[in-house]
Design goal:
By secondary structure, this protein is α/β, with parallel strands linked by helices. About 40% of the residues lie in helices and about 20% in strands. Strands 1, 2, 3, 4, 5, 6, 7, 8, 9 and 10 form a ten-stranded mixed β-sheet that branches. Helix 6 (about 185-200) crosses helix 11 (about 320-340). The protein has helices at about 1-25, 70-85, 100-110, 125-130, 165-170, 185-200, 210-220, 230-240, 285-300, 305-310, 320-340, and strands spanning about 60, 90-95, 115-120, 140-155, 180, 205, 225-230, 240-245, 275-280, 315-320.
Length: about 350
């Protein structure tokens, strides 16, 4: 009798135990959700260091010549990443074809994380110009680092005090005002044509050799105005040799914070900026790509890089891979229309 009672008690105890286990909620997974991005995004990833990466130096291609703004940015970002990753980041300038030489080299590189590159706004329109069959869909973006606004700049003693003055004069004297730009394939050439289209004016386009050539021409009286990067003209504006009538953006430029924006002037479609970020070949292992995305973000958000942009007069402008991809695709569509309308294709 005692044995039967004991057995019944034991059975009831086991039943209650099993019921309690079944009612207990499952432990949540500690593994992060996998990244789900159309173009190298890192949302949902931790950017944790992979077990075997990096073991050796990382090469960073740069689409611009040594000594320029994009080169200086790349070397600053590379130096910060080098310190954080504890491996050398070696800068390799690959110039030519408005960036096409650099990005073709990037696309042809092994997708293992040991080759990264600057990516820039030129990537969005070299296809339309006919320089190379390359565009934003051919690379993966790791993040945006900086940008700077296009602007209309005139001599300090110019009769035009405002952008409205300039536009009104051009409308009254179609084709008479000479406007310098950065030359064939330069972003400021496209910006000059964008200005013409958005404002409904007609100007005499005069190409020069890059921003430096434009400013030399303006100071020498060889053109009436120039479309150039606000940060590139900053020194001449600060010295009182030039004045900025408008920045082609919807927000103020850190280089010339007092200059009105295109939106202020009543032309919200007149948005033309240079941007520079970091990219990689498509097809990297997901853990390596997430780690590099995190390294770029850390570098851009560092005090060292923010100080660099302040000193250069460029706009600190971090964007995630997905955000940068969306910007690139939007610019690609915009500039393709400008190239076609202006007949700039080679």
């Amino acid at each position: 009798m005692k044995k039967r009672v004991f057995a019944m008690i034991l059975a009831l105890a086991m039943a209650f135990s099993l019921a309690a286990c079944a009612a207990k909620p499952a432990e949540p997974s500690k593994d992060p959700a996998p990244a789900n991005s159309d173009n190298g995004g890192s949302q949902g990833s931790t950017g944790a260091k992979p077990d075997n990466f990096p073991k050796d130096s990382v090469n960073m291609f740069v689409h611009a010549a040594a000594g320029g703004g994009s080169d200086a940015m790349a070397r600053t970002i590379g130096s910060i990443m080098e310190g954080n990753m504890d491996v050398p980041v070696v800068v390799d300038n690959k110039t030519g074809g408005t960036g096409s030489v650099c990005w073709q080299s990037l696309i042809s590189s092994k997708a293992d994380g040991y080759t990264i590159s600057t990516v820039a706004s030129e990537l969005t329109y070299i296809g339309a110009l006919g320089y190379a069959s390359i565009g934003p869909d051919d690379v993966d973006f790791l993040g945006l680092c900086q940008s700077w606004s296009g602007s209309l700049v005139v001599p300090a003693d110019s009769e035009w005090e405002t952008f409205a003055d300039f536009v009104d004069y051009c409308k009254a004297h179609p084709g008479e005002v000479s406007v310098g730009d950065g030359g064939t394939g330069n972003i400021w050439q496209l910006a000059a044509y964008t200005m013409e289209k958005e404002t409904g004016i007609e100007v005499n386009h005069v190409p020069f050799d890059g921003a430096a050539g434009e400013m030399t021409a303006l100071l020498g009286g060889h053109c009436d105005a120039i479309v150039v990067g606000a940060s590139e003209a900053k020194a001449n504006i600060d010295s009182g040799a030039m004045k900025c009538l408008c920045v082609f953006n919807d927000k103020a430029s850190s280089a010339v914070p007092d200059a009105p924006t295109a939106v202020d002037a009543g032309y919200p479609g007149l948005i033309c900026n240079v941007w520079v970020g970091i990219g990689c070949p498509k097809g990297l292992p997901e853990d390596v790509k997430a780690y590099l995305v995190d390294q770029v973000k850390q570098a851009v958000e560092s005090d060292t890089f923010k100080k660099y942009t302040e000193e250069r007069g460029t706009d600190w402008n971090y964007m995630s891979p997905d955000e940068l991809y969306a910007l690139a695709k939007s610019d690609m569509e915009k500039y393709a229309a400008i190239v076609e309308d202006a007949g700039l294709a080679q």
